[in-house]
Amino acid sequence: MRAVRIESNHKIDVIELPAPIAKDREIVVRPVACGICGTDLHICQHGFPGTNYPVTPGHEFAGHVVAAGREVKGIKEGDFVAVNPNVSCGACEWCKEGKPHLCNALTPIGVGRPGAAAEQVVVPGQNAHVVRESIGYGVAALIEPLACALHAVESSQGVRDRRVLVIGAGTMGLLTSIIARHHGAAEVTVIDPNQGKHPIAVDVGAHKVATPEQLGDERYEVVFEAAGAMPALRMALNHIRKTGVLVQVGVHNVEAIVEVNPFTIYEHELRIIGSNSLANQFPAAVDLMYDIAQPAGKLIGETYSVWDFGAAVQKMASSSAVKTQLRFD
Ligand SMILES: NC(=O)c1ccc[n+]([C@@H]2O[C@H](COP(=O)([O-])OP(=O)(O)OC[C@H]3O[C@@H](n4cnc5c(N)ncnc54)[C@H](O)[C@@H]3O)[C@@H](O)[C@H]2O)c1
Ligand SMILES: [Zn+2]
Ligand SMILES: [Zn+2]
C-alpha cells in the first residue's frame, strides 16, 4: 500500500509499505477523511514530543473497516468508524485511574505509531467508534478535535448561564464556542487578531467577536485560552472574573514561562485548569457531533489529496481557513 512517511530529517515521501494486518484485538481501517493540525506541522518542521520517526502522520480521521481481529467486539468489516488516536497502555497508574490520555506510555496514532495518511491504518478495536455515515466524511474526521474541545468545556466545570471568553478562533476555539453555546452559555465572545476568522466565528454562533485591541476590560466567568500564544495567555489571565476559571487549551512551547499575580489568584479566588487532549470524551463527542454537525462542518476549509501531504501542511500554515483536511480519492 502507499503511505506518507516523514523521516527524522523532516523529509516527506510517499512510499510503498506492506499492508497492515490486524492482530486479534485490532482492526484495519481504510481512511476516507483526515484533518491536519498544528501537531502535524510540528512533526514535519521541528519535531513533536513522542514522535517515532520515520512516521506516517494522520490522527484526526474516519474511514471504513476492512478487517477486524478475532477478539474485536461490536465492529465488523464495512463499518464506518471514527478513531480515538490515543493508544494507552492500560496498565500504568493513569490508565488504572481512568485517565488514559495521561498514560505514561501513550503512543498516539500518527505520532508514536503509524497514522492515517496511508491507504490503510491498523488501530486497536477499542479505539474505533462506529459513526453514522450520513454525518459526512469530513465532519466525522472532526470528532477527534471535538472530543478535545469537549474535554476542555467539561474541565471548566460548567458553562451553562455563564459568560464565556474564547481566545483564538481556530479549530479548537470555534469547536469550544459551538459546544459552549450548545451547553447553554449565557454569552460567548471570541477573540482573534486575524479578522479573516471573525465571520466564521459569528457564523458558528459566537455572540460577539473582536480583536484583542477591541476587547476592553470586561471579565468573564469562563475563559478558554485556545490560541497557544503568549499574548493570548496574558490576556486570558487579565479577563477572569472573580471566582472564574481559565482553561488552558493552547499548547505552548515547553520552556515558556508567564508571570502571574498570586495575590489576584487568592483575592479573586481564580482557578486555572489545564486540558490535555480528549480524556474519555470520544464517545460523547460522537453523540454530540450528530447535534452540531451543521455548524462544525462550516470549519472545514480546503481539502488536499493525502499524497500531497507536504503541500497541504505548508498551505495550512499560511491559510486563513480553519480546518484543512486530506481526502483519499
Ligand atoms: N488541549 C488540547 O487538547 C488541544 C488539542 C488540539 C490543539 N491544541 C492546541 O490549541 C491551540 C489552538 O489549536 P487550533 O488547532 O485551533 O490552532 P489554529 O492555528 O487553527 O488557531 C489558533 C488561532 O489563534 C489565533 N491567535 C493567535 N494569537 C492570538 C492572540 N494573541 N489572541 C487571540 N487569538 C490568537 C490565531 O489567529 C488562530 O486563529 C494550539 O496551541 C494547539 O496546539 C490543544
Ligand atoms: Zn490534531
Ligand atoms: Zn498507561
TrEMBL record:
Similarity annotation: Belongs to the zinc-containing alcohol dehydrogenase family.
Cofactors (names): Zn(2+)
Ranges for domain Alcohol dehydrogenase-like N-terminal: 24-130
Name of this chain's protein: Alcohol dehydrogenase
Domain Alcohol dehydrogenase-like C-terminal, first and last residues per copy: 172-289
GO molecular function, one term: oxidoreductase activity
UniProt-listed Pfam families: ADH_N, ADH_zinc_N
Keyword Oxidoreductase: yes
Domain of life: Bacteria
Gene3D superfamilies: Medium-chain alcohol dehydrogenases, catalytic domain, NAD(P)-binding Rossmann-like Domain
Protein keywords: Metal-binding, Oxidoreductase, Zinc
